[in-house]
Amino acid sequence: MTTAPEIREPRSTTVTGRIDPSYKRSGGPKGSFEMAAWLFMRLSGIVLVVLIFGHLTVNLLVGKGVHGIDFGFVAGKWASPFWQFWDLAMLWLAMLHGTNGVRTIINDYAERDAVRFWLKMVLFAAAIVIVILGTLVIFTFDPCPQGVTTGLPDFCPAA
After folding, report:
1. Where does the chain cross the membrane (predicted)?
2. What is the distance between the alpha carbons of residues 88 and 134, in angstroms, rounded to a whole number?
């Protein structure tokens, strides 16, 4: 009769339950930052649910629904500072929420300090670029640019 092979402890602990020194990560205590990040994820998630369902309601349920979304719809919506800040808050919170989540995944799965560092640098750079570009699009969007006479939508005065 054969016996089943022994199941070993997870790689991060030894038989005594202590953390194996080869898997300890460098750096001091990060408790207060991690607690703030944890709290941010919960609060931003709640706010994002409200922002996203408001966005979906206005875009898909009010008016012509999905068939009414076109360049003119977006131009009319972004003509209002309320909707500019609504979409800006949604963009910023979604990017920060997602970036924090991916940062947590990188911390959990990247074993080497250098790999973890560079993955997070790429993540932060991508998040910063997307937030900056998205903010510029929201606040500099002009459906009827001055001096252009051709190719404008029907609602522009010069068209």
Report:
1. 35-58, 78-96, 117-141
2. 8
- Which sequence spans correspond to the domains of the chain? 30-140
In what helix (H) or strand (E) does residue 36 lie, and over which residues does it extend?
Answer: helix 31-56
Planar angle of CA 23, 122, 99, nearest 5 degrees = 85
The one-letter amino acid at 56:
L
CB atoms within 10 A of CB 107: 14
Say whether 24 sits in a helix, a strand or coil.
Answer: coil
Q: How confident is the model at residue 47 (pLDDT cuts 50, 70, 90)?
A: very high
Q: What number is the average pLDDT over the span 9-24?
A: 57
List CB contacts of 12: < 8 A, sequence separation 6 or more: 19, 20, 23
Global pTM?
Answer: 0.72
Partnered with residue 13 across adjacent β-strands are 19
* Residue of 17 and 139 predicted with greater confidence: 139
Supply the CATH classification number for the domain 30-140.
1.20.1300.10
Picking from 125, 130, 123, the residue whose alpha carbon sits closest to that of residue 93 is 130
